[in-house]
């Protein structure tokens, strides 16, 4: 009797790097791929599969929303104009669906990559609402994804087999950025974005410690810096970035998959760039 196949996760995967990561994993493996999107699930499914010669049943797109809702603050809290309420329910429901569908298997590789950028050149440009959404999406998003999906990684007792084009251990990857490095910060600026990504690196380290205790060498966590990628997030900076350092989403996805495949247990809990070099904390 054939053993159940492990599965892969890309969240979100509706555009940019996430969409290309989902396509890449469908092309280089024969495993089921779970992709997520806030809305337009059928459209996301079609975009991921477009032009691919793969079994379409391997892909499933689930609703998942780390942005949540903006609610007016109660009358007694006039100090704050709005309150950001993350939609954790969609995250828990997606994880529960995966737990049920893959009840006799495990998550082999997950990319958790929500991101938003509101650049600030000076402290005077920091906006409360923008900063709050930055932390909610860039930091709380990966944190809640870790909460609900890392329990689906293999335990110490799990029989882990080698799979071509994937890391030797199961791996949970969070999207960071080079500007999240405190020791490498020589330019300043981008206050909320830098802080949100520094927090992601901290989360990756703590999650990895948890996984080491729970899963041993069978699962690990890292954070990743994809470089400057030609997506909506970085559009304002395309003109000031040399073409050699401005990557397509396809190239970034290819490089990130290669990085996690080669990072090894010695690289667990750390941040790695698109070229396989460590980004210092």
Tell me about this structure:
About 35% of the residues lie in helices and about 20% in strands. It has helices at about 15-30, 40-50, 90-100, 130-150, 190-215, 250-260, and strands spanning about 5-10, 35, 60-65, 70, 80-85, 105-110, 170-175, 220-225, 230, 245, 270-275, 280. Mean pLDDT is about 90; it is low at about 75-85. Strand 6, helix 4 (about 130-150) and strand 7 (about 170-175) form a beta-alpha-beta unit. The strands form 3 sheets. It has an 8-stranded mixed β-sheet with strand order 3-2-1-6-7-8-11-12, with helices on both faces. A two-stranded antiparallel sheet has the order 4-5. A two-stranded parallel sheet has the order 9-10. The protein is globular. It has 6 helices and 12 strands. By secondary structure, the chain is of the alpha/beta class. Helix 3 packs parallel to helix 4 and helix 4 (about 130-150) packs parallel to helix 5.
């Amino acid at each position: 009797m054939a053993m159940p196949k492990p599965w892969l996760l890309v969240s979100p995967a509706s555009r940019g790097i996430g969409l290309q990561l989902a396509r890449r994993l469908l092309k280089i493996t024969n495993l089921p791929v779970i992709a997520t999107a806030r809305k337009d699930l059928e459209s996301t499914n079609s975009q991921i599969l477009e032009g691919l010669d793969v079994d379409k049943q391997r892909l499933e797109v689930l609703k998942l929303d780390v942005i949540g809702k903006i609610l007016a603050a109660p009358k007694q809290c006039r100090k704050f104009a709005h309150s950001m309420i993350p939609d954790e329910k969609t995250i828990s429901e997606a994880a529960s669906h995966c737990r049920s569908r893959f009840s006799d298997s495990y998550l082999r590789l997950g990319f958790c990559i929500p991101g938003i950028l509101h650049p600030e050149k000076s402290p005077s440009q920091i906006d409360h609402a923008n900063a709050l959404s930055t932390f909610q999406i860039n930091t709380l998003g990966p944190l809640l994804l870790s909460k609900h999906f890392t329990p689906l990684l293999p335990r110490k007792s799990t029989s882990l087999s080698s799979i071509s084009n994937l890391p030797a251990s199961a791996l949970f990857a969070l999207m960071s950025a080079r500007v999240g490095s405190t020791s490498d910060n020589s330019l300043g600026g981008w206050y909320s974005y830098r802080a949100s990504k520094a927090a992601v690196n901290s989360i990756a380290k703590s999650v990895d410690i948890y996984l080491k205790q729970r899963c041993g060498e069978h699962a690990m966590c890292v954070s990743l810096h994809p470089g400057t990628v030609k997506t909506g997030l970085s559009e304002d900076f395309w003109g000031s970035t040399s073409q050699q350092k401005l990557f397509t989403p396809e190239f970034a996805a290819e490089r990130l998959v290669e990085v996690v495949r080669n990072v090894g247990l010695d690289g667990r809990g750390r941040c790695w760039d698109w070229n396989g070099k460590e980004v210092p904390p």
